[in-house]
Amino acid sequence: MTGAAGRIIIVGGGIAGLCAAVYAQGSGYRVEILEQHHSPGGLATSWRRGDYTFETCLHWLAGSNPSGTLHAEWREVCDIDSLHFVDHDEFVRLEDQHGGRLRIYTDVDRLEAELLSVAPEDEVEIRHFAGAIRQLADLPMPRLDEPWPARVASMLKMLPDLPLLWRLSHLSVEDYGRRFSPPLLRAFFFGGGGAEKLSVLALVISLAWMGNRNAGYAIGGSQAIIRLILERFLALGGHIRCEARVSRILTEGDVATGVQLEDGETIAADWVISAADGHATLHDLLGGAYTDRAFETAFARYETFPSYLQVSLGVARDLSQEPGYLTLVLDDAVEVDPETRLQTLSYRIFHYDPTFAPPGKTAVTCFLPTRNFAFWADLRRDDLQRYQAEKDRVAQAVIAVLERRLPDIATVIETVDVSTPATVVRCTGNWKGSMEGWLMTSDTGFGSLPRTLPGLERFMMVGQWVQPGGGLPSGLLTARAAVRAICREDHAPFLPEGSEREVAE
Ligand SMILES: Cc1cc2nc3c(=O)[nH]c(=O)nc-3n(C[C@H](O)[C@H](O)[C@H](O)COP(=O)(O)OP(=O)(O)OC[C@H]3O[C@@H](n4cnc5c(N)ncnc54)[C@H](O)[C@@H]3O)c2cc1C
């Protein structure tokens, strides 16, 4: 037994690594985070180009409402109440090239009325859809670290919702979308881009939370959240090292004993937590020596969220009259790469975040999903000139589509930035450049993968690769559960911030 004076090394400073660090440092461990990139955040990131900040991650943070599910857990890792959240009335607007328009409101009554007005022939399905959003509005987030009695109590509370949860989790967005007639409504459920098997449950729950004003956008984006968690960790006395790439997790007699960095330096630890990519953790950092049947099944069978390009535009124009999130359904698909053609393009027009551009200007981003990460990674490695040319081609296509919607916009674009799946892999190390880990499908259900590996002691995994569906809450909740299990094993008190004493079993 080490007690809470032990040393914990955390591999990876994304949201999961940072949350684990706060929980562990707060419970008395000495924690060091090793992050391979030059700054923490992982996928929860943005970057600055001239006057503009380009956000990649944050659409919504589940748990933004002080009286809503998950808020109390966010409070344990950061001063979440110091953030300013925007709750959009309109989640997304879809438009075609022929004047067709569909608004997806976050208020379920307005959404239902809008859908009925564009598709009265689909009334039965629309009523079911709105009913599902209403029913799941108060669904508690299942807690991964609850002891059995509490878990049973939670399950009992969820009992009336279980049939609906089961049905929706076994329906893909693509199949669900086919139940509706208007192409714009189908495009809302699935507009193409490689996530067609995503369970529609994920979408319904997101809309339910937005309707509850518990999935707001934090001004400053994902880095505002990351900064707050990092501040809490540093204030507790923790340490983080950036540009420190772990190449091996060291073991002795089936016990994790520390890590080795790329430059050969070794660091000893009483516990190692990997908050890095799941595939790399098992196959590279642990050299394939430890595995679990659940992970083998997942690597062989589960689908990942796709990778993506992001075209970011610095626009010297006030676009505050435009929707914040605009999906354009195209007559002619845009070619992203040899295997990817997109029939819809989605633009985020960040007029609602004044920290992203000076007054009178607007940061705009376009997210282009692709599963052909290898094309971009190979091109960047083998032919930088062609890589650049392909990035320029995609950027011009994205601008041309926007120009049709916002005439003359091209004349006021003063910054263009393109990231690709090669960028995602380089900056975060995620398998296949995935944006969010495992897609939640009928295969995965809403269960999680193990946080420990059979035969390996004093090792834990956290983050989006142990919780299908991914997202920022997966980082928070898997981290909480892992550190709580570590404390239990060490007979040390688990002391999340705000709790007066050890959290009771
Ligand atoms: C476009 C986009 C939109 C999204 N929108 C939302 C949203 O609106 N709401 C939401 O909740 N979620 C959203 N997500 C998902 C969310 O960003 C991710 O699920 C979450 O950030 C993953 O966190 P993580 O800590 O598990 O993994 P990561 O963020 O991948 O962190 C892993 C970290 O480990 C580091 N690392 C890897 N290997 C090593 C190594 N060998 N040594 C040292 N360090 C290493 C990486 O550099 C990285 O910092 C979005 C993601 C994307 C890409």
Automatic annotation (TrEMBL):
Task: Read off the InterPro entries from this record.
Answer: Amino_oxidase, FAD/NAD-bd_sf
Locate the transmembrane regions by residue number.
none
Domain spans labelled Amine oxidase: 15-486
| Family in the record | Belongs to the carotenoid/retinoid oxidoreductase family.
- Could you tell me which PANTHER family the record lists for this protein? PHYTOENE DESATURASE
Q: State the name under which the record lists this protein.
A: Phytoene dehydrogenase-like protein
